[in-house]
Design a protein that fits this description.
This protein has helices at about 55-65, 85-95, 100-115, 120, 195-205, 210-225, 230-245, 250-265, 275, 280-290, 295-305, 310-320, 330-335; strands spanning about 1-5, 5-15, 20, 30, 35-40, 45-50, 70-75, 95-100, 140-145, 145-155, 160-165, 170-175. By secondary structure, it is of the alpha+beta class. The strands form 3 sheets. Strands 1-2-5-6-7-8 form a 6-stranded mixed beta sheet. Strands 9-10-11-12 form a 4-stranded antiparallel beta sheet. Strands 3-4 form a two-stranded antiparallel ribbon. It starts with a strand and ends in an 11-residue tail after the last helix.
């Protein structure tokens, strides 16, 4: 769970459905895993990309029900069937509205039309009825307990008319298939026209003012380019990622970009330990160590005479500077910070 004030989000990764046949290494074919994000406040919640099969809908629905929130909306990032065929089941279960951009809705209708010749042949009997009930919202913007959620149309990525969901108060972008993470990218719909439009979609993330996500997008894309031996193209993406991440003080991600650049044959100065120790202020380092040692926000606040909200604010800054997303990662991230220092 990641939290800012009374708003939080969590991610559920559903098991992929099996496919007929085997891979060259003998393993059975499987589809990509499906990540769904739940953004929630004290009472209500918004779900994204609910998957495609009846089993996925049941498992995801049980996980969502465990959060004990009223699901008001289900957002679809783009029109590939694996991202929305199960939306109807979950909308009915939770009494939720399905929302998407106009471009995504058009692509969803195309995927439904292609079901008999594609999806139903691959997953016979596994996919529920999937009429397109999604609606647009005025200004591509809706709210969750007073917080803005903004649908941003970014154009072509692994399909036409992709969109992302920007939650400014969480510093969150739910990127759908604009950004992949740890799975092979679907390239078939980009192979003919080239990858320029996909690069432009990544650049459009910068308009959301989420520079961290944009920098990581350049990093992930650069890593993929290097792995397919497009080293010259990779250098540009990785160089941009390194400069952005280094400027923001995201040491772990900047070092990852530096290593990737080195693998392309480009030399980048490694951040020294002395530089690393200046990433956090003395107070931030002290708060980080208290959190690492298991202290709650209330306990940290009591020790430093700070409000819980102020501690939360400091921890958000610490996570961004260290390039991490949870307290569990603090122990490793703090290894280079040297001995404990008192707060200034």
């Amino acid at each position: 769970m990641n939290q800012a004030g009374n708003l939080a989000y969590d991610v559920f990764v559903n098991d992929p459905p099996p496919q007929a046949g085997f891979l060259p290494n003998g393993e059975p074919k499987r589809f990509s895993p499906m990540a769904s994000t739940l953004i929630y406040g004290r009472e209500d919640a918004v779900l994204t990309d609910p998957g495609m099969t009846e089993d996925q809908a049941r498992v995801l629905g049980d996980w969502v029900a465990g959060k004990d929130r009223n699901v008001t909306d289900i957002f679809i990032t783009h029109g590939h069937g694996d991202h929305f065929f199960a939306a109807g089941l979950l909308a009915e279960r939770f009494g939720a509205r399905v929302v998407a951009t106009a471009g995504t809705i058009a692509q969803m209708q195309g995927s439904v039309a292609a079901r008999p010749v594609l999806w139903d042949k691959l997953y016979t009997g596994l996919i529920p009825p999937s009429p397109v009930t999604a609606v647009t919202v005025p200004g591509d913007r809706f709210t969750l307990e007073g917080h803005d959620l903004v649908m941003v149309d970014v154009g072509h990525a692994d399909a036409d008319d992709n969109s992302v969901l920007h939650v400014p108060d969480l510093g969150l972008v739910v990127a759908g298939d604009v950004i992949y993470n740890g799975v092979h990218m679907y390239l078939a719909q980009s192979a003919v026209g080239g990858f320029g439009p996909w690069r432009e979609a990544i650049d459009r993330l910068g308009r959301t003012r989420i520079r961290v996500d944009l920098a990581r997008a350049h990093l992930l894309y650069g890593e993929w380019l290097r792995r397919v031996n497009r080293r010259a193209d990779a250098r540009g993406q990785l160089r941009t990622a390194h400069e952005m991440l280094d400027a923001m003080g995201l040491a772990a991600f900047a070092e990852r970009a530096r290593r990737e650049l080195a693998a392309t044959g480009e030399t980048v100065r490694k951040r020294t330990v002395e530089t690393t120790t200046t990433i956090l202020t003395a107070q931030e380092a002290y708060i980080a160590r208290l959190a690492r040692d298991g202290r709650t926000n209330a306990e940290i606040g009591a020790q430093l005479f700070l409000s819980v909200r102020t501690v939360e604010w400091h921890l958000r800054k610490i996570f961004i500077k260290l390039g991490i997303s949870s307290r569990r990662e603090l122990r490793t991230a703090l290894d280079d910070l040297g001995p404990d220092r008192p707060a200034a």
